[in-house]
Hints:
It is built from 8 helices and no strands. By secondary structure, the protein is an all-alpha fold. The longest helix is centred in the last third of the chain and has 16 residues, at 154-169. Among the domains are: 6-69; 83-137, no CATH class.
Amino acid sequence: MCKYTTEEISFLQQINKSSPKAYLRKKAQALILKSKGYKRKEIQKIVDVKDSQLGYWIWQWHKHRQHSFDVKPKNQYRRYLTLTDRQEIIQMLRNKKPKDIGLEGEYWSTRLLKVYIQAKYQVSYKTDQSIRDLFKEAGLSIQKPITKDIHQSDSKRQEFIGLVKKRSLNTTGRVLLSW
């Protein structure tokens, strides 16, 4: 049998009576029964919980006491930037160019914004998705650059176009150039 102070018992009774969350009421009820000397099997049947859950509640109570009832928010991801920092970055993206704040480049890129955030806020993201989300929130779209084959030369391209034009003069159909 565990030793509970009268303050702890009154705390548990208060939780049992007034908590809006059913699992907290069950937890308080189980701990009150434990304080009265009930065995774990009896408490399991009364409160209708598994033995592992009951054991966890009891362990939590012995370790943290009243703090074991602190409700932690669920489904909240950790934010690297505060909301005010995010708003500041979004306003900066809308109103300034990289060269206005001392970075090289005419237009914003994920690399430039990543460098800026690292320098000013000491935050580094593992992936570029968060950076893209900032661009999207600022109303900017990401444009992929036009790629060019490094093996392609302008002289060969012009030669190809010339050959196609010569051949197309003798044909009656249409020719679609694709380079």
